[in-house]
From TrEMBL:
<feature type="binding site">
    <location>
        <begin position="16"/>
        <end position="23"/>
    </location>
    <ligand>
        <name>ATP</name>
    </ligand>
</feature>
<dbReference type="InterPro" id="IPR039657">
    <property type="entry name" value="Dimethylallyltransferase"/>
</dbReference>
<keyword id="KW-0547">Nucleotide-binding</keyword>
<keyword id="KW-0808">Transferase</keyword>
<feature type="binding site">
    <location>
        <begin position="18"/>
        <end position="23"/>
    </location>
    <ligand>
        <name>substrate</name>
    </ligand>
</feature>
<dbReference type="GO" id="GO:0052381">
    <property type="term" value="F:tRNA dimethylallyltransferase activity"/>
</dbReference>
<keyword id="KW-0067">ATP-binding</keyword>
<comment type="similarity">
    <text>Belongs to the IPP transferase family.</text>
</comment>
<comment type="function">
    <text>Catalyzes the transfer of a dimethylallyl group onto the adenine at position 37 in tRNAs that read codons beginning with uridine, leading to the formation of N6-(dimethylallyl)adenosine (i(6)A).</text>
</comment>
<keyword id="KW-0819">tRNA processing</keyword>
<feature type="site" description="Interaction with substrate tRNA">
    <location>
        <position position="107"/>
    </location>
</feature>
<dbReference type="GO" id="GO:0006400">
    <property type="term" value="P:tRNA modification"/>
</dbReference>
<dbReference type="GO" id="GO:0005524">
    <property type="term" value="F:ATP binding"/>
</dbReference>
<feature type="region of interest" description="Interaction with substrate tRNA">
    <location>
        <begin position="41"/>
        <end position="44"/>
    </location>
</feature>
<protein>
    <recommendedName>
        <fullName>tRNA dimethylallyltransferase</fullName>
        <ecNumber>2.5.1.75</ecNumber>
    </recommendedName>
</protein>
<dbReference type="InterPro" id="IPR018022">
    <property type="entry name" value="IPT"/>
</dbReference>
<keyword id="KW-0460">Magnesium</keyword>
Length: 316
């Protein structure tokens, strides 16, 4: 692959739910097309959370350079804005090395933000400490449910996109509305003209996918997921963004002596299935994806390679 892109940085993106073969495909494509891999997963940024986030192994990372893995401590936040900034920088650095950036992950909102320039309004609006203090007090006195309900009453779309437990983001949405008179969810689509992406999606039949997800959870437990969750819990993980991830929060009740291990594992499997469904809905409705099924049809890998070759040729 040649060095400087004529109009925009070429980027290959592999998306899809867990357990459909994204990692294996990314390694194969990276070797074939002289690529470096950028994680598009919001949880793989955290050091110490390896099993539950299905990070590439040390051997795989020695084989192909990986980026945006292990760049945060578990106590730290990692936002969509952080991801976009870091990913854009890595894309440029990889291109400058005459390599092809290959983004792999399942966090649809992060990937869309990078590729489409999407933002949930108000990032340019400076904060107001008095407004924040007012609603922080409101949350303490009335609870997160009441705070979220108030946001829902003024901006239903923003409320749908912000989790109930993300008090900081809820207050920010209210703050922007009160300061500007415009809804936080009034989005601006500003396509990222510096990125030219081919988005490859992996999926398979739902019953097959769900079985693979459950098998993966069982394998994670055998590999030591409980010990990883226990370490996170005793480091205060229940308070952190890192502790909200599927595979960890479900085991906290057992670790805390308030639930059974069997129930925790069953909850991980259930939440993983639900998350996979949400991922697929996002990719289908929000992103322009070319879909393949490597689980049921291994020969699809030939089609994927051909698609990438043709796409690269078209762009010179």
């Amino acid at each position: 692959m040649k060095g400087v892109f004529s109009l925009a940085y070429k980027v290959i993106v592999i998306v899809g739910p867990t357990a459909v073969g994204k990692t294996a495909l990314s390694l194969e494509l990276a070797q074939m097309f002289d690529a470096e891999i950028i994680s598009g997963d919001s949880m793989q940024v955290y050091r110490g959370l390896d099993i539950g986030t299905a990070k590439a192994t040390e051997e795989e990372r020695k084989l192909i350079p990986h980026h945006l893995i292990d760049i945060r401590e578990i106590q730290q936040h990692f936002t969509v804005a952080d991801f976009v900034c870091d990913a854009q920088r890595k894309i440029k650095e990889i291109n400058d090395r005459n390599k092809l950036p290959l983004i792999v992950g399942g966090t649809g909102f992060y990937l869309q933000a990078l590729l489409d320039g999407y933002h949930l309004g108000g990032n340019e609006v400076k904060g107001d400490g008095k407004i924040r203090a007012k609603y922080q007090k409101f949350a303490l006195e009335n609870g997160n449910n009441a705070l979220w309900a108030y946001l829902n009453s003024i901006d239903e779309l923003a409320a749908k996109q912000i989790p109930l437990n993300n008090v900081r983001r809820i207050i920010r949405a209210i703050e922007v509305y009160e300061m500007t008179g415009h809804k936080f969810s009034e989005q601006v689509d500003r396509p990222n003209e510096e990125i030219d992406a081919l988005v490859i999606g992996l999926n398979t039949e739902r019953n097959v996918l769900y079985k693979r997800i459950e098998q993966r959870v069982d394998q994670m437990m055998q590999d030591g997921l409980l010990d990883e969750a226990r370490w996170l819990f005793y480091e205060g993980g229940a308070k952190f963004q890192a502790g909200k991830g599927i595979g960890y929060k479900e085991l906290f009740p057992f670790i805390d002596g308030k639930g059974s291990l069997e129930d925790g594992v069953a909850e991980i499997k259930k939440n993983s299935r639900h998350y996979a469904k949400r991922q697929l809905t996002w990719f289908r409705n929000k992103m322009n994806v070319t879909w393949f099924d490597l689980v049921s049809n291994e020969t699809d890998v030939v089609k994927i390679k051909k698609t990438v070759i043709e796409w690269l040729k078209e762009r010179g």
